[in-house]
């Protein structure tokens, strides 16, 4: 019997992954949770602050949870505004997930890491799976620590915890929250509303990215891979594509020739410059057959189509 708890189910990734897991395993087997109740949620939703050990343990026991997807964290840009609080939230919630999972013999745990674990010293092109991790953000530092704690709990207690170093995730389902790659989501909203987009990164800032559908599929494929195939117990590099704001603009202008962008780099430019431009994800391809399906133009086309529907619906309602 499978019972999945999703922590951070109202977030950019959590909201889409929850729906996919409901479709796959049945609404009744998915327990969504976040800091605040989601009144419009279809299914079982629990208010949960994952930094509260007792609250997490109570939900796991109450519902007989067999798998946890821990998707709650403070991201890179917001993290720099409150470093110590970011460290506290990101690490305390992970420790609670690790300890509750150990104590309740959890079958599987998913923990998202990020390409933000790499720092300025790493090769920018095809950044290798195994390289010195010297991140420049608190978010990245918390993810490096998290990867090593995940590996420790696997080796010491046999906890089957699996992880992916996500690149910038792009989806139409929700507005982003506090990341450095968020420009690549905001830009589509502006394009569909025929507004000029003000980009907080320089035009040539190439970053590794992935479309939401590929992200969700990769996550589920990793979690469903046979245990013996998993050779990386820190976190798997993963990428769908790499592009700069300039390249994304050109892709959008194939649909909206009049679309305009202006560049006003802010503090997030320095964060972006410390990250890879492209990622070597050969370990994921070898261990669990990872292969991206969306390139930049396929992503642009679907993002614009979906956001046109969203804004047309909103216009009709108002
Ligand atoms: C961020 N979207 O910008 C996240 C992600 C690689 C970027 O970790 O912080």
TrEMBL record:
Domain spans labelled NAD-dependent epimerase/dehydratase: 4-230
One GO MF term attached to the UniProt entry: L-threonine 3-dehydrogenase activity
Alphabetical list of InterPro entries matching this protein: Epimerase_deHydtase (IPR001509), NAD(P)-bd_dom_sf (IPR036291), NAD(P)_epim/dehydratase (IPR051225)
Pfam families, sorted: Epimerase
Gene Ontology BP, a term: L-threonine catabolic process
SUPFAM superfamilies listed in its UniProt record: NAD(P)-binding Rossmann-fold domains
Superkingdom as given in the UniProt entry: Bacteria
Family the UniProt entry places it in: Belongs to the NAD(P)-dependent epimerase/dehydratase family.
The protein's name in its UniProt record: NAD-dependent epimerase
Organism: Flavobacterium aquariorum
Lineage, broadest ranks: Bacteria, Pseudomonadati, Bacteroidota, Flavobacteriia, Flavobacteriales
């Amino acid at each position: 019997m499978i019972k999945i708890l999703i922590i951070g189910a109202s977030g950019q990734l959590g909201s889409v992954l929850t729906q996919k897991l409901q479709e796959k395993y049945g609404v009744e087997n998915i327990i969504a949770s976040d800091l605040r109740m989601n009144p419009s949620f279809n299914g079982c939703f629990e208010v949960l602050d994952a930094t509260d050990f007792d609250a997490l343990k109570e939900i796991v026991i109450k519902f007989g949870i067999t798998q946890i997807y821990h998707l709650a964290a403070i991201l890179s840009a917001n993290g720099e505004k409150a470093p110590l609080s970011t460290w506290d939230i990101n690490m305390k919630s992970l420790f609670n997930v690790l300890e509750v999972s150990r104590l309740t013999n959890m079958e599987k745990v998913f923990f998202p890491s990020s390409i933000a674990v790499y720092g300025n010293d790493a090769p920018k092109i095809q950044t290798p799976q195994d390289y010195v991790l010297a991140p420049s953000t608190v978010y990245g530092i918390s993810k490096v620590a998290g990867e090593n704690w995940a590996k420790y709990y696997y080796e010491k207690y046999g906890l089957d915890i699996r992880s992916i170093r996500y690149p910038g995730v792009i989806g139409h389902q929700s507005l982003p929250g506090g990341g450095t790659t968020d420009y690549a989501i905001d830009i589509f909203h502006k394009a569909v509303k025929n507004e000029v987009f003000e980009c907080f990164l320089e035009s040539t800032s190439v970053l590794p990215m992935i479309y939401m559908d590929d992200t969700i599929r990769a996550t589920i494929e990793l979690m469903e891979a046979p245990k013996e195939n998993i050779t990386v117990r820190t976190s798997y590099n993963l990428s769908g594509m790499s592009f700069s704001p300039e390249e994304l603009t050109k892709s959008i202008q194939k649909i909206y020739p009049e679309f305009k962008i202006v560049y006003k780099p802010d503090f997030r430019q320095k964060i972006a410059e410390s990250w890879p431009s492209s990622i070597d994800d050969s370990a994921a391809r070898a261990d669990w057959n990872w292969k991206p399906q969306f390139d930049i133009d396929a992503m642009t086309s679907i993002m614009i189509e979906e956001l046109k529907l969203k804004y047309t619906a909103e216009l009709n309602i108002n």
